[in-house]
Amino acid sequence: MTLTFTRYLYNADEVVLTLIECLLKQNSLNECYYWIYEYYKTGYEKESWQILYKIYYDFYMLKNPKMEQKMNDKYLKWKETNDIKCILWIVKN
């Protein structure tokens, strides 16, 4: 097993777990932004999308089924622009 680190030397797996915890506890939107930004800017751009979809399907899909289409729309926009604001919008909503 190889440890991978983010740009500020956080363990990448722990960044993902911390993001999930922040989203579920809904303590601080800025903290959620920080962790997804850290992961994304380390080079895990596509993986960031995979994690957001997994979180959605695991925790939010039943209560918010219409969000999937919005996420798909943001993903398509991101593929054209590579703009992190698409990801941040999903984290916020």
Quick synopsis:
It is built from five helices and no strands. The protein has 93 residues and is mostly helical.
Query: How much is the average pLDDT?
Result: 96
Spans where pLDDT lies below 50 across 5 or more residues = none
Note the main sheet: none
The coarse overall form would be globular
Helix content: over 70%
How much of the residues is beta strand, in percent? Answer: under 5%
Q: Compute the separation of the termini in Å.
A: 34 Å
The SSE order reads HHHHH
Class inferred from helices and paired strands: mainly alpha
**How large is the radius of gyration?**
13 Å
Q: Based on DSSP secondary structure assignment, what is the total number of beta strands?
A: 0
Number of helices: 5
Give an overview in words.
- By secondary structure, the chain is an all-alpha fold.
- Helix content is 71%, strand content 0%.
- The chain has five helices and no strands.
- The mean pLDDT is 96.
Helix and strand topology:
Layout: H1 12-25, H2 29-41, H3 45-60, H4 67-81, H5 85-92
Helix pairs in contact: 1-2, 2-3, 2-5, 4-5
Question: What are the defining features of this structure?
Answer:
93 residues, mainly alpha
